[in-house]
Amino acid sequence: MSSPSADAFAQWRQRAESLNIRSQAFIDGRFTDALDGRRFDCVSPIDGRVIAQVAEGGAADIDRAVAAARRAFEDRRWAGLAPARRKAVLLAFADQVARHAEELALLESLDMGKPISDALSVDSPATARCLRWYGEAVDKLYGEIAPTADDTIATITREPLGVVGVVVPWNFPMIMAAWKIAPALAAGNSVVLKPAEQSPLTALRLAELAAEAGIPAGVFNVVPGFGPVAGQALGLHPDVDGAFFTGSTEVGKLFLHYSSQSNMKRIGLECGGKSAHIVMDRCQDLEAAASAAAGAIFFNQGEMCTAGSRLVLHKAVKDQVLERLVALAAGYSPGHPLHPATTMGALVDHRHAERVLGYVDKGRAEGARVVCGGERAEPVPGGAYVQPTIFDQVTPKMTIAREEIFGPVLAVLTVDSEEEAIAVANDSDYGLAAAVWSDDVSQLHRMTRRLRAGVVYANCYDADDLTVPFGGFKQSGIGRDKSLHAFDKYTELKSTWLRLR
User: Fold this and answer.
1) Using an 8 Å Cβ cutoff, are 9 and 115 in contact?
2) Residue 346 in contact with residue 323, Cβ under 8 Å?
3) Which pick of 103, 153, 343, 346 has the fewest CB atoms within 10 Å?
4) In sequence order, what E strands does 396-483 have?
5) Average pLDDT over residues 480-501
6) Which of 338, 299, 334 shows the shortest CA–CA distance to 105?
7) What pLDDT, on a 0 to 100 scale, did the predictor assign at position 5?
8) Per-residue b/e over 8-23, b at no fewer than 16 CB within 10 Å?
9) CB within 8 A of 397, min separation 6: which ones?
10) SS3 for 87-129, per residue?
11) Which one of 56, 270, 404, 418 is the catalytic residue?
12) Residue 61 to residue 237: CA distance in whole angstroms
């Protein structure tokens, strides 16, 4: 008799074979081919198979989408609706995502290799939750009346930015899209979304679900394509009022150039990270700290901007934590992403797997010691899998301690004191996230205040709630996703003066 997990594995594989995949661009309320007819292979990193041929949007297709978005914005078919009406449509959109949660999770798993259990428990519900939260928020935002003289009234109101371009990465395609499109749509903007070329499938299905929920034609457009063509065209477009990007710092800097070279459009960036995860000698629950450290680097195959990729251990607890980590890493051995028991799936593609392994080679060459992993894995022939990898004897100047690897590779650095831990943690071009573990409350307060990061965790890692803003310092970005602060990116403040007679 087969086990329940084996039965579920067989069912997911069967569903994958019969899945109806949307592969055209979605512009002005309908699916359409690229104007020049080009398509590109969408390859699953699970086994290297082509699962769809997707419309390859170019500059002309971005023009079409932006024109549709502009028409929709100017005739106020969406921006002109009462906030309560936009709320109702966004809640219906969230309900559609929740109803199709399994389908979306399967698309996400096939497209970028994450375990189906994670896609189903994290990605799909988080996407629906984000749409619902911003839908609920939009009719609760109030304007202001300034304290001017008695003979004047000055109001301060939020107005939508206009046409918003959104470019999202491949590690959390649905969630990253939702973090941007939900507040943008709630505020009354029209949106053109370019998903990562490695993972366009859920974005296209989301566009269809949005239309079914009642979002008018032209308000939400999705143009798949490649960054240097479609992404650049969106960033340079003179009729786009704001471009909002999540991805590498290298590409984020290009969007700053695009803005300066075009119309000075507003830019929002959530970029790279090299987060320091500190465990001090005053931490008593080393089991919890080690477990959090393992999850912080191995969850989602380490393909996380907040990945705790630098583990900074006080020398007094270093051996105990490292021993626990090596044992925990065995539980993240790569497996078939559609098997419910799998905790680590495939990296997004073979090119990225080679890049990650190149960093492993650099770590060895520069003198760090591999204590586990460091090689390819092949749970599924043809797939892009890398073993969970831990380096010891890492120094702050080594490449693996400075550059974002974006894979399941952990660099362990040893320190002697609180001062050294802070210095090592802040010695980075990035400042997205950081964490400290200690049972000394005074020490926690001292250290969290001094860490130069946009998100700091104390005795936890990767805590998450839509009410809390997310973003980084330094070269980790500009602006914040999540919370009411996200509306700052997608709205303009208008001051209106009225002279009383």
Assistant:
1) no
2) no
3) 153
4) 409-415, 430-431, 433-437, 455-458, 473-474, 477-478
5) 97
6) 338
7) 84
8) bbeebeeebeeeeebb
9) none
10) HHHHHHHHHHHHHCHHHHHHHHHHHHCCCHHHHHHHHHHHHHH
11) 270
12) 12
The two structure tokens encoding residue 472: 């980084």
The tens digit of pLDDT for each residue in 355-392 reads 999 999 999 999 999 999 999 999 999 999 999 999 99
d(CA 404, CA 273): 6
Judge whether residue 2 has pLDDT over 70. Answer: no
Neighbours of 79 (CB within 10 A): 18
Q: How far apart are CA 10 and CA 284, in angstroms?
A: 43
pLDDT of amino acid 277: 98
Dihedral-angle region of residue 406 (phi above 0 means left; psi in -120 to 50 means alpha; beta otherwise): left
- Band of residue 4 on the pLDDT scale cut at 50, 70, 90: confident
CB neighbour list of residue 62: distance below 8 Å, 6 or more residues apart? 192, 194, 223, 225, 230, 233, 234, 237
Q: How confident is the model at residue 37 (pLDDT cuts 50, 70, 90)?
A: very high
Q: Contact 328/290 with Cβ under 8 angstroms?
A: yes
Cα 417 to Cα 415: distance, rounded to the nearest angstrom: 6
Q: What is the 3-state secondary structure (H, E, C) of 167-209?
A: ECCCCCHHHHHHHHHHHHHHCCCEEEEECCCCCCHHHHHHHHH
Checking if the pLDDT of 1 tops 60, the result is: no
Q: Are 364 and 74 in contact (CB under 8 A)?
A: no
- State residue 322's pLDDT score: 98
Sheet order of strands, 242-246 included: 30-32, 25-27, 220-222, 190-194, 163-167, 242-246, 266-270, 477-478
- What is the average pLDDT value for the chain, to the nearest integer? 97
**H or E element that contains 321:** helix 318-329
pLDDT digit string, tens, across residues 209-235: 999 999 999 999 999 999 999 999 999
Choosing from 56, 305, 372, 404, which is the catalytic residue? 305
Tell me which amino acid residue 251 is.
V
432 vs 306: CA distance, rounded Å: 7
Residue 270 bears catalytic tag = yes
